[in-house]
Sequence to fold (241 residues):
Amino acid sequence: MTPPNNEQESASTPRHVAIVMDGNGRWARERELPREQGHQHGRIKLHDVVRAFSERGVRFLTLYAFSTENWRRPSEEVQGLMTLAAEAIKQDAPRLHQEGARLLHLGRKDRLDPDIAAAIDRVVDVTKDNTGITLSVAFDYGGREEILEAARSLMRDGVAADNVDESAFESRLFTNGLPDPDLIIRTGGELRISNFLLWQAAYAELYFTPTLWPDFGPQEVTKALDSYAARKRRFGGVEGE
Fold:
């Protein structure tokens, strides 16, 4: 995946797209398959979706892979998701690296298996100088927890209240260094963002599709981006100003 050039970038193309990947379980249930097969098919879609966004000029893509609330799921499913994460790091990350993607992790690592946490650190380090699309994976991530931890970090460092502005606060978020998302997509038909990028989503455009994540491919990417291109973003101002 080559980095988009200036000709590809325009106001009609979001710089940063974030996705709540929902519907794996329902996809499996509709086919009378185990839930883990739905998650596995969802992982298989990853590369095609990343490539499709990159080819359309999107520079940053963030995927919501595992939330802080997902720990409440049955232990067998949680373990299956951890195994799937390990497989993605082993099988998908090298391919993405070869194509120039820069990989980042958003969220906590202290609750992950040490081997998985170490593998994440290696992938982030190996791809840090890549100049293609930046793919951030939100894994053990929660928007409220991110905000609370940013506040705690400022307090631990003794930052005076009068010195806490948006810039200072954002520097303590997991997304420090990333632009806010222009477009947030949720697959699977639910109409909520589920504790995802709560601070960063202040002016994001929202796009909801009934398509389940394992069925979300390049054609769905085009639909989402075309919807975004047809919108007018005013950021609180008046059209035409």
